Structures are given as C-alpha cells and as structure tokens.
Amino acid sequence: MNNIDSDSVRAIDASPTNPFAVPETAGRKAAALKTRLARILSAPAARAVEADRGPTHFSFGVNRIDAALRGNAMADGLPRAALHEIHAAEKTDGTSAAAMALLLAERCRDDKPILWINESAENRRHGHLFPPGIAELGIDPDSIIYVNAPDSIAVLRAAADGVRSPAIGAVIVDLAGKKPKGLDLTATRRLSLSARQSGVTSLLLRSGSDMEDPLPTAAFSRWQVNAAPSAPLEANAPGHSTFDITLLRHRSGLYGLNARLEWNHDDHAFRERQAGETAPDLGAVPALAADRADHQGARAA
Amino acid sequence: MALFLPWLPTERIIRARGQPEAPFALTEKQRGAVVITAPDRQAVALGLGAGMKLADARARVPDLMAFDHDMLADAQLLDRLAEACERYTPMVAVAPPHALILDITGAAHFYDSEKALARDAEDQLDTVGYSAHWALADTPDAALALAQHGLKEGAEEQLPVSALDMDAKTHQALERAGLYKIGDLSDRPRPNLAARFGMELTLKLDRLLGVEDRPIDPVRSLGNVTTDRRFPEPLTHIDAALSVLEELFVEASVQLEQRGQGARMIRMMLFRCDGDIAKLGVETGAPTRDPALFKRLLRERIDALNDELNPGFGYDLIRLSIVAAETLAVKQLKLEGGEDLEADEVALVSQLSTRMGRGQVQKFQPADSHIPEQGLLALPALDAPPPAPWEIPPSGNPPMRPLHMFDPPQRVQVIAEVPDGPPHRFTWRRKAHQVIRYEGPERIGSEWWQRKHGQQSGKGGLTRDYYRVEDVKGRRYWLFRHGLYGEEKANPDWFLHGLFA
Q1: Which B residues, 431 through 460, put their C-beta within 8 Å of a C-beta on chain A?
Q2: Do A227 and B439 touch (CB under 8 A)?
Q3: pTM for the complete prediction?
Q4: Could you give the dihedral angle defined by the CA atoms of residues A21, A25, A27 and A29, in that order, rounded to the nearest 10 degrees?
C-alpha cells in the first residue's frame, strides 16, 4: 500500500504543470494494482475457509499448561493440524502413553472417528487395546477404527492415508520398539505436512523409544509420559488415571514444561494435581492391620 | 456337457514330475495294506487295476513305481480346471472324483456349434496334459454317464445299468433280472420298476434318459451383474487390463444404477490364454458406483498381491462381476457445499481393508459375557453392525477396567499376607513390584452352567478374584487369583490381566 501511495505521489510531482496529464507508466501501474486488488479480494475467502474448520488448537483444559503452550500462536494449547509425538518414558509406561494419546485425540476429534493404527506383532508384548477400558475413560469405543498393520512401514502408509482423509478426527500411529523401520525425518515430515493440509491431528505414540537419544522427527511437539501415583480414594484404593507429562520439544522453543495431570472422565478434561496432593510416601508400606481394619470399615459404611 | 478325466490323478503326477520311465501307480493305505487306487496307462496295459494290493502288483510287474495318492490335490486340481472352464460358461459344476459338468445352454455362440465348444475344451485340456472324454446331453446326469462310458449323445440306451450309480446290490439285482442295459429298462413301466427297486431307481433313470432335469450346483454362483470382454488378440499389458477392468466397472455400474444399487463386492477374473486364471476381489464398506473409488481399491488390491500379476502370453477374456450389491439411494448433495464425510470414511476403511485384509481393520462391539476377555468383539469395519451402546461408567469412579489387556493373561508370582487376601508384592517379567494401594476383590464367577451337573468345580473355569493394585512407581495393574483358595484350588495361581493408565 505504502508503495503505491508514494509512487502515485511521485507521479503527480513529476508533472506539476499539467495535473490532469496521464503519466506514461499508468498502464503498468494499473495492471499491478489490479493484481494486488485480486490478491486482496481472494484473501478473505481463504481465511473464511480456515475459519470454517473450527478451532485451530486443542487444549489440555489446564490453564497453566495451555497458556504456556501459546508461544507465538494466537490460541492456547497445541495446534490441531500438526504431528505431535508422545513417548513412554520407560517400556512399562506404554499404557500411560497410549492413554494420553487417546485422551488428546478425544479432546480434538470433534465427534469424528479416531483411527488407531498399530503393529499387530506388538500386541502380544504390550497387551491389546481393551474397549471396556476405553469406555471407562469416558470415550466411546465405537469412535475408534482399529487397524492391525503387519509392519511399521505399513503402519506409516496407513497413517499417511488416514491423515489425508477429512472424515477422520485424529490418527494415532502406535509404533513400539527402539527404531521402527521407516520412521525417519522424511516419513514424519510427510505426516506433518499432510496433517497441516487436512487439519487432521496426528499423534505418534512411541513406547520403548530410547529417551536419551530419540529418533529425529519433524513433529511439532514431543511429550514424555510417565505413570504417576494416583490420589488414593477411600480405603486406599487406586484413584483416577494420573500422568506425569514433560514437554521435550516444541516448535516455538518451549522446553521443560512439566505437570502432573489427572484425567476426569466426567468432564472430559485434565486436572492438574498440585505437589501437595502427591501425598504418598513412596516405598513405605502402610501398616497392614490398620489398613485392613480401615478397609473393612469403609466397606461397611 | 460333461468332461470326464479318467487319468486325472496319474496325469497330475506326470505333469508335476515328468513321465516316469517305469509304469507307476498311486497307492493308499487301507486297513494296513497298501492298495493301488489309480494305476497309470502303462500299468493298466500290464493288467493292473484299482483295488489291487501293491505287493501283488509288484509280483506281476517288478519295476512298478508307487506314489502316495493325494486326494486333496486331485480335488484342488479339479476345482482349478473347473475355474478354467468358466471361460465357456459361468455355470460349471464339479462332479467328484474326476468329472466336470458345464451348462453350455446358450453359451456356444462364440463357436460354430456346441460340439465345437466341446472339442475346444478337450484340446485346451490336452495342451495342459489332461485327457478328457466329453459328451453332450440334455441333462447333467446323462452327459456325465455318457462321458464316463466313452459314448456320445443319443447313446443312452447302450449304457450299462451300473451307469445309474445305484448301490452294488441293486446293480446285481438288475443284472440277475436280465436287465443289463439302460435300454432294457427304459420302456418298462415305471411303477413296476419302482415297486421292485425303489423310487430312487426310476428317478435316476428319468434323469439319465433326459426326462427329468436336475439343476447343477456351480462352483461359483453367478454374480448380480456380470460384464466381460473378449479379445481377439490377447492383452499383454497389465495397465491395459486394468483400464479394461475400470471400463467394465463403469458398464456394470450403469446397470446397477438402473436398479438403484451399488456394489459391495466385486470379483474380477482375468483368463490367460494358456488356461491360467488370475482372480481378484474387492470389497467396499458401503455400496458404491464410484469408478474413482473402484480404481483406487483395484490399485491397492494389485499392490497387496503376494505374487504380481503375470500376463504371460496375454489375457483373452476379462470378466467382472458384482457379487454383492446393496440399495444405494441417490444422494442429495448439500446446497452449501461441504464434504461428504461419511463417504470419505467408507472410502478410507475400504482402502485400508483392501490393502491389509478385511479382518485387520476393526470396530469394537460389546459382547454379552461377564468374562472380561469375552466381553468384546473386534469385527471387520467393512460390514460392522450398527453401533451397540457400551456400558457407561458411573461418574466419579476411577477406571475399573484396564486400557491394555493381556490375552492370555500373564502369570505372576504373588506374595500375599494371607492366601485368600490381597497381593502384597508381585513379580512380573522378572521384576518385583511393591503394592502400595489396592482395591478388591471384585469376584467374577465362572461359567458354572458349562459344568456337567452345575456342580463340579473346575469345569467352565474357576472363580476369579480381581484386584486393582498400584505399585510404588504409580503404575496400575489388574491382577486376579485364579480359583478360590481352599475350595476350588489348594494353591491358586495369580495372573496379570491388564494395565491401567
């Protein structure tokens, strides 16, 4: 805009004697203006299409984290049209990581199905997904399309197809093992580009990865998930699903954000557990006699 | 038309390993003795026959070779030949052990006559090394009997009574009565025959004489819509064949559109001119007439093939049939535009199922069982039934069922304070876990109705006592004690059944 203005001012200055004379460069300028006008006119249309997709970000529902994740984006939380990585801190945290991926997918799927792709060989080692357990987390198991792929290459291929499909709410790419074949910078870049185009959130779930030296990927963010001690219920019963999450990598340079989150399946949101709440003195065994008496009492009550 | 292949088992061996230098026979062990089931031509010429003991036969022909008779391979070969004969007519039935029946009514227009078609079939079989007798008749039974006895059309009267395929006793009784040929029976009054030999005989006689027809049971049922294309010059390029398939699908979908249907299952057969057939199947998650989707699924199918399509000397007939079709209403597109999400989902599911196999893309359904691992069904997403409601967990409770389950459960070593008490410490995968919180037991009873008298413990499974436990590191496990201590089992085992988030 500034350019045009200054140009026209100069054009008028150049011919002070005849203000009505048409400068010789007018034809060229008109063409330039026309193209610029066309570009301006087409821009709102494009923006409208983007707005049509609904919110661009999804959140944990925990203000502290969502605000911290804002970065230089305009909205809180993580962008939907991107690839996010979720790593299990240790092999035994695989279930917690899987649950975290599932819960994040639930928070961004907009009533569309979740495509869960895993390697069929890994089922025996890590156990298979148990739908009643999914229902217990407050997620409708019917919203999951479960794909058993023969190997990691097939997993990535199916994921690429899933991410491109506008009918899918979120894709969970479940790859176990230290170095799954085919999972590299190119493959993840392809996934994240497709995600950016289609707006389908893709979550790369990695259990058994080497946390000291994770494989390089093109993901927008990388999270590490541990199982955390739950807040005990009555009679010292294990409580709600609890996770320790740590942000290991983020496009806007955030690092080291961590939190202890508890999933509340009633309002479909996470809740942050404060340090004070993490009461259990690890390693200590409660006095059994008292515990048992307590338990009996609680049950009778 | 019937094609009878008298030497099928031995010719299969010759085709597989070349003509042996000595006469040979296929043998089978019957009641401890090795018995010849199928001698080859040379062996028959030397006077050997089926049913002879191998030891006796060796006494006569010392250099007789023997192979095991693989009946299954014969049956498979016959099925393959039946498929190859589908180039003449889609109605091909197998008549075990060694014959094929083709319904060529109205199918001979590519040949001068039905006889020419039959001769072509004989030639084709001959080039791949199988000798066949053929016969044409009005009914399948007549054609089969004629082919088996090496006779031609109209010679039914000359067939021996054994062609009736009754039991040996009846054949003997007929011969005792002086009735040797079908001709002897044909003009006798049926009621008398029926009174003497039973209704079955008259029925079979009528079928043999072409008085009564019998429908044949084709190897493959005819699809709803079938389109095919023959080529005077065989197609040798895969791409050309694929584009022909796409054209055929468009033709078929025009027919489907007139019926208001869409294809669910599409079968394609590519007939190679040397008799080999490539079969492809494509299934969709919802009825479709969309050529673009078909094209995509077809490419997926080809990519997923274990051994690539080999056109060899080329395909001379390509056939596409819609095996299953369902009603497909014309869809009203939204006036304001927007994508058809349902169609997109179906397309994705169809594509993935085509690539990985239909059983590998699943949707979950609850099943009616209180045994945890039997409480779910993983059904192919392609034809999943409408969603059934899952049990909604009561609000405020933590998850009572694990997210990951081990099936079968994994054995753990447990230390408990008292034998019927909660676990105190357990060892899983050689690692010790200290339990700091637990809830339980949640007792899940056995399926006692599967026990013999509803009494004996042990049958139908043992009672399980489930505990939700949390260890020091905050991991939550689902353990159970298998069997009631003291009542069902002296020393019950412990298992880890699942992992909570």
Answers
A1: 434, 436-439
A2: no
A3: 0.71
A4: -110
Q: Which residues of A touch B439 (CB under 8 A)?
A: 233, 235, 237-238
The answer to whether residue A239 neighbours chain B at the CB level (below 8 Å) is: yes
The whole-number pLDDT of residue A73 equals 67
B415 interface with A at CB cutoff 8 Å: no
Residues on chain B touching A230 (C-beta within 8 angstroms): 398, 437, 470, 474, 476
Q: B474: alpha, beta or left, given left = phi > 0 and alpha = psi -120 to 50?
A: left
Q: Are residues B413 and B317 in the same domain?
A: no
* Cβ contact, residue pair A165, B406, below 8 Å: no
10-residue mean pLDDT profile of chain B (501 residues): values are 87 83 85 86 85 87 86 88 84 85 83 87 87 87 86 81 82 85 83 84 84 79 79 88 91 88 89 84 86 89 83 88 83 60 85 88 89 88 84 85 91 89 91 91 83 59 89 92 84 92 86
Q: Do A98 and B403 touch (CB under 8 A)?
A: yes
ipTM of the complex: 0.75
If you measure CA to CA, which chain B residue comes closest to A124?
A: B406
Backbone angles phi, psi at A20, to 5 degrees: -95, -5
Please state, in angstroms and rounded to a whole number, the distance separating the CA atoms of residues B138 and B496: 68
Mean pLDDT score of chain A: 79
**Cβ-based neighbour number of residue B141 at 10 Å:** 28
**What residues have CB less than 8 Å from B111, skipping those under 6 apart?**
B117, B120
Q: DSSP per residue over A175-237, as a string?
A: EESSS-TT-SHHHHHHHHHHHHHH--EEEEEEES--TTSPPP---SEEEEEEE-PPPP-GGG-
Q: Which of A49, A106, A130 to mutate to test the interface with B (most CBs of B within 10 A)?
A: A130
Domain span at B479: 404-500
| Contact residues on chain A for B352, CB-CB shorter than 8 A | 147, 158, 161-162
Instruction: Record the tokens describing residue B362, joined without a space.
Output: 């699943």
Nearest chain B CA: its distance from A148 CA (Å): 5
CATH number for the domain including B256? 3.30.1490.100
CATH code: domain A58-276 is 3.40.50.300
- For position B285, what pLDDT does the model report? 81
Nearest CA in chain A to B372: A132
B397, part of any domain: no
The number of folded domains in chain B is 2
Q: Is residue B106, in this structure, part of any structural domain at all? A: no
8 Å CB contact of A227 and B347:
no
Q: Does A94 touch chain B (CB under 8 A)?
A: yes
Domain boundary among B312, B331, B350: B331
Which chain A residues are closer than 8 Å to B418 by Cβ? Answer: none
Does B494 lie in the same domain as B410? yes
- Which of B331, B362, B392 is the C-terminal boundary of a domain? B331
Is B8 a member of any domain?
Answer: no
First and final C-alpha spacing in chain B: 67
- Asked if residue A185 lies in contact with residue A218, where contact means CB atoms within 8 angstroms, the answer is yes
Is residue B461 included in any domain, yes or no?
yes
